[in-house]
Design brief:
47% helix; Rossmann fold; alpha/beta; 4-stranded antiparallel sheet; 11 strands; single chain; 14 helices; globular
Length: 333
Amino acid sequence: MKLTVIGGGSTYTPELADGIGRLLPSLAELVLVDPDAERLAAVGPVSARIMAAHGHPARVRWTGSLDDGADGADAILFQLRIGGQAALLGVPPAAVSLGHVGLNHLTWERSVLVDDKDVLPDLIATRADEIARRTEMPADFVRRLGMVPSPYLRYYYAHDEVLAARRGAMTRAEEVARLEAELLELYADPTLDRKPDQLARRGGAWYSEAAVDLLRSLTDNRRDVQVVNTANGLTLPFLPADAVIEVPAVISGGGAVPVPVEPIEPLLRGLIAHVYAYEELALDAATRGGRDRVYEALLAHPLVGQADQAECLTDRLLAENATFLPWARGDRG
């Protein structure tokens, strides 16, 4: 089996290599594809050493050529962080079924089934403080919500508080850039043959398990249930069929088929529909260009929603990115 990773120069790749080394013995060749030769020069060798340290016999190579990497590949991974859930229940992850619903980076756990029993109410009642730390939202709010929100939802539920805390502080982009520089320096060490602890701070914890598990289900037709981003179909009837949603789905050789979900509460449905409307407008602006389309997308976003702010953000976005947007240099309409 040949596996190709597009974006193989990512600092996440050693995490993936660690998972493959432990969990995917059938792999014969791993090819990392990235246009950034310097990143590949650092990430490729450490990924190969990690695989070798696990005793995995696969050939590991890297290239800047998409054609070379993709030719003859049995599977291709686009390097995206899928994420994971930590085992608060003291049971194996496979024994847990999550009532997970929403959009990418906009999700809630509405139930947690263990042996067909929903243990989420008990979990919130007894572990609310721990859940609160993980979601970065107050324990009383988690109890009142009665479900576990994604940490990203604090940008909506505690918007003013988060904004005040971020003013003058290092941005997430700056934090990631600093950490990636540190990781790339570590990867250059020819003796490093394990994923460094710093990788967990990059946000990639459990990425290897999630990515490899998904790959195995797609290639082995396992028909198990995993949380993925997939086409909506009729799953959330208030969204278009081609909307990309994040829900549990049956994974097989034919792809992902969403598992039916319980009707969505208005509290969740309203925010999901609002953010999806922004995504539609943002996609239209990205594919067709035009200042007005950018403005409308920003105006529609629930974290903007004010005409003067949308106007200001549009001007700043186009000014900062004009080099990459040919239409923005001449088209002001």
